[in-house]
Amino acid sequence: MPNDQPATMSPPAAAGLPDSVDEAHELLANGRYVADRSLATVLYLALKRQRPLFLEGEAGVGKTEIAKVLAEVLGRRLLRLQCYEGLDVSSAVYEWNYPRQMVEIRIAEAAGDRDRESLSTDIFDEKFLIERPLLQALRPEINGPPVLLIDELDRSDEPFEAYLLEILSDYQITIPELGTIKAPEPPIVIVTSNRTREIHDALKRRCFYHWLDYPSAARELEILRIKAPGAPERLSREVVLFVQELRKMDLFKLPGIAETIDWVDALHQLDKIALDPEVVDSTLGVLLKYQDDIAKVHGSEAAKVLDEVKRAAGTGGV
Questions:
Q1: How far apart are CA 266 and CA 257, in angstroms?
Q2: Contact at 8 Å (CB) between 183 and 172?
Q3: How remote is the C-alpha of 228 from its chain's centroid?
Q4: Cα 231 vs. chain centroid, distance in angstroms?
Q5: Of the candidates 211, 236, 269, which is a domain's last residue?
Q6: Residue 102: phi, psi to the nearest 5?
Q7: Do 72 and 137 belong to one domain?
Q8: Domain end point (choices 76, 107, 126)
Q9: Rounded mean pLDDT of 138-160?
Q10: Are residues 53 and 194 in the same domain?
Q11: What is the pTM of this model?
Q12: Taking CA atoms, which of 4, 35, 157, 307 is between 20 and 30 Å from 24?
């Protein structure tokens, strides 16, 4: 996996794993991630026990970000496997470099110095192996085992989910032509799911589990102070209260934290210091991603929510 950093830059210094829940909480805070005590606790236990952490929750609540923060703060390599329907071993684990193997066969045939049996052994050597994220995660790294993010597992097919059982329980992969490759030290594994389908119990039993919910108003405001520090405080408060009200509505897709951050950034770019009906209606497409949801909120409903927000903000609602 290519490194995004320029070749002239040194990798970040490796940091030690947390020795307590407080240190796990501080670790996330150092990566500008606002976590509650329960998340810090399960993260600490997963790291301490070298178990995968299975994070489930609605899209946009910060599941993927945890893996990114861990890699950044710990100075580890981040390996991301984005799951999708039809994902198979050749895309996720390994495949053989068939063009190079064919060249090797042609060279050997021209030279006539190897019999068929020895040639068949030679072409299934690790130098012909193309490693994908799951196999790369088992390899040792200078700064310590990498962070493996298996993102949106619920989008993959059940056979692939079953394939993961060996990896998540024993941190090893069996390649028929080479045998079993086992990690000298387990990687840090984060598995996420948006719960579009149920993940089998056999996989969940191999992980520590945590449900990541939408944040409280106070926590979401704290997130905005970190992620959008230039936004006026009044604007951030009103945005949080407005989004919190929308999450009580029957919408097809409720706005996540990422949408809240995008919205406050957009409003700040428009030089707004507070919400008003016109700007809410004209920027709903930043916050909501489906036309049916926008149509439901647009106009009188948005004005009604905004009235509630102004009243709550005036009485110190956040």
A1: 14
A2: yes
A3: 21
A4: 26
A5: 211
A6: -65, -40
A7: yes
A8: 126
A9: 94
A10: yes
A11: 0.86
A12: 4
Given CA atoms 73, 74, 75, 80 in this order, what sign does their dihedral have? negative
253 burial type by CB count under 10 A (0-12 exposed, 13-18 middle, 19+ buried): middle
- Cα of first residue to Cα of last residue in the chain, in angstroms, is 43
Beta bridge partners of 81: 150
Integer Cα distance of 161 and 202 in angstroms: 10
- Three-state secondary-structure class, residue 90: helix
C-alpha dist (Å) from residue 177 to 80, 94, 105, 196, 245:
26, 12, 17, 36, 57
Q: What is the pLDDT of residue 15?
A: 61
> What residues does 148 pair with on adjacent strands?
79, 189
Residue with tokens 């100075």: 75
Q: So what's the pLDDT on residue 171? A: 95
**pLDDT per position as a tens digit, 173-198:** 999 888 999 999 999 999 999 999 99
Average pLDDT (89-99) is 90
Domain count, the chain: 3
